[in-house]
């Protein structure tokens, strides 16, 4: 769907329990996705990762010598990234910034930027998307490139099957339940997740996390990126070099300032 006149200000929330569950559920970037972004970046440095989260993509790149910085709006995610960096013996001093994509205020300018794992869809409003694209472009050097992913549609609406849970190394258990629905007027997916922490079988903490997600057609996302002033815009099918097709669930966008 291609919403128009979307209100701005939609936010996804990544609080502490969600961050812990995310780390336990997705401890590392999928090898094929990491390789895709590494290839897309090429030899261009320095690199900026938008919505870097707990560092699933950023830290492996840093470990191979890539000069990469990251921004994320979630302090919990950035704290997790710093902890993972310490565990790996990596220095992220001055590399992580608590900022929203649409409000970038960084000192450096970059030869490449990327946003992985479909996170760009968490920017839902038209103004929010336009501001974020303009901010990324402003932080790229002339000829710099931006690579990111968007999804074309939602999964089935409703609650996930049952309760999901993860065992922490200290024996505590995190559970999650929730659901999602599509706003018929806007085409946006609204979801909530209830995360609970049990220690010795006793519930000690509960969090409610809310998100809104936007979906894109190839034509709509290409138009938005061109409107932000990018000179070259290419949309591909998934993590491939093939043109987009009608059955694609994931699109990758490659733009050059």
Gyration radius, to the nearest Å?
18 Å
Order of helices and strands: HHEHEHEEHEEEEEHEE
Supply the number of helical segments.
6
**Class based on secondary structure composition and strand pairing:** alpha/beta
The average pLDDT value, as a whole number, equals 92
Strand order of the largest sheet: 3-2-1-4-5-11-10
Calculate the terminal CA-CA distance, rounded to whole Å.
27 Å
Unreliable spans: 1-10
Strand content: 25-35%
Q: Which percent bin holds the helix content?
A: 10-25%
The number of E-state strands comes to 11
Largest sheet: 7 strands, mixed
Label the overall shape.
Answer: globular
Q: Could you explain how this protein is built, in words?
A:
The protein is built from 6 helices and 11 strands. 37% of the residues are buried.
Summarize the structure.
The chain is of the alpha/beta class and 257 residues long.
Reconstruct the topology from this structure.
Layout: H1 16-25, H2 31-41, E1 47-50, H3 58-63, E2 68-72, H4 75-88, E3 96-98, E4 110-115, H5 126-138, E5 140-151, E6 164-167, E7 173-182, E8 189-199, E9 202-213, H6 218-227, E10 232-237, E11 250-256
Parallel strand pairs: 1-2, 1-4, 2-3, 4-5
Antiparallel strand pairs: 5-11, 6-7, 7-8, 8-9, 10-11
